[in-house]
Amino acid sequence: MFKPLHNYILLERLDDASTTAGGIIIPDNAKEKPVRGKVIAAGNGIWIDGMLVPPTVRPGDTVMFAKWASSASDIKLDGKDFIIIKETDILGIL
């Protein structure tokens, strides 16, 4: 299994609903990339002032992350698509 380093987090994107509340079906090419994800793995944390600060998120958490995160990279592992992102680009835990 893949283990992120430092303050990087491995996420699996969670798809948003493909229909609106009114029942209108949204085609795939009109959807934006999801900004929600499930934490698959987390690094050990980041060193600040000589102390290791562990990540706030844990595997299994559902999080919301910045749409245009500068640290985000799409990767493929074992045929599945994932995103790896710095913890600082995660906006919150759902």
Please sum up the structure shown:
The protein has 94 residues and is mainly β.
Strand order of the largest sheet: 6-7-1-2-5-8
Number of helices: 0
Number of E-type strands: 8
The helix-strand sequence is EEEEEEEE
Question: What's the rounded overall pLDDT mean?
Answer: 83
Secondary structure class reads mainly beta
CATH fold group: 10 Kd Chaperonin, Protein Cpn10, Chain O
CATH class bucket: Mainly Beta
In angstroms, what separates the terminal alpha carbons? 25 Å
Low-confidence regions? none
The CATH superfamily turns out to be: GroES chaperonin
Helix share bin? under 10%
User: Which descriptor suits the 3D outline?
Assistant: globular
Q: Rg from C-alpha positions?
A: 15 Å
The CATH architecture would be Roll
Structural summary, described in words:
There is one protein chain. By secondary structure, the chain is mainly beta. The chain has a single domain, classed as Roll (10 Kd Chaperonin, Protein Cpn10, Chain O). Helix content is 0%, strand content 41%. It has strands at 8-13, 36-42, 46-48, 51-53, 62-65, 73-77, 80-86, 90-93. The chain has a 6-stranded antiparallel beta sheet, with no helix packed on it. A two-stranded antiparallel ribbon has the order 3-4. It is globular, with a radius of gyration of 15 Å. The two termini are 25 Å apart.
Characteristic key phrases:
single chain; six-stranded antiparallel sheet; two-stranded antiparallel ribbon; 10 Kd Chaperonin, Protein Cpn10, Chain O; globular; 8 strands; mainly beta; 94 residues; 0% helix
